[in-house]
Known about the structure:
The chain has helices at 13-31, 48-55, 107-118, 176-179; strands at residues 6-11, 38-43, 63-71, 81-85, 95-103, 123-131, 144-148, 154-155, 171-174. With 180 residues, the chain is an alpha/beta fold. The strands form two sheets. It has a six-stranded mixed sheet. A three-stranded antiparallel sheet has the order 1-9-8. Helix 1 (13-31) packs across helix 2 (48-55). The protein is 24% helix and 31% strand. It has a single domain (13-151), classed as Rossmann fold (3-Layer(aba) Sandwich). It binds inosinic acid (IMP). Inosinic acid (IMP) binds at residues 46, 77, 100-108, 153-155, 159-160. Residues 46, 77, 100-108, 153-155, 159-160 line the site of inosinic acid.
Amino acid sequence: MFGSEIEKILITEEEIKEKCKELGAELTKAYASDADKLMVVGLLKGSVPFMAELMKYIELPLQMDFMDVSSYEGTESSGDIRIIKDLDCSVKGLDILLVEDIVDTGRTLSVVKQMLYNKGAQRVKIVSLLDKPDRRVVDIEADYVGFTIPNEFVVGYGLDYNQKYRNLPYIGILKPEIYE
Ligand code: IMP
């Protein structure tokens, strides 16, 4: 049965929905004064379910775009990042809200944030569904965080293991035998 590979559910679908409502209300207030400049940028593919849910509660006429980046080496991000899919739109002068599934070492976000500034963004803020602060190696924090989690490898709600489990509607920890 799908989901039977999960040892423990860490965050339920209901909890995620509730959090998206809260974050959406907070973001609506934060960006209301200059909403025309707001562009929400999702990092593919992990941000997709979170971004889709969160955007419903940002009650502003925002623009959206996606970027896909990858580390050159290994499975853990190295900070040496190449763009697989660049933005379709110019970000010049725009207020960017970067959407990520998880901040782990922080390498990816720190590079992408700088890339967006280099492209002329006026301001770049980060919203992440999850934060794993124990793993941080780069000094970067998300401006808005859904849930802070311990140092465990999680899947679901956009997060994958070998490209699978992104479609689980909750955040869970895989059974160890799946890795073995
Ligand atoms: P960072 O550059 O190390 O912060 O990398 C963040 C990326 O690593 C995320 O966008 C995820 O794709 C991936 N990642 C980090 N931790 C996990 C996890 O627990 N499960 C699944 N993917 C993860």
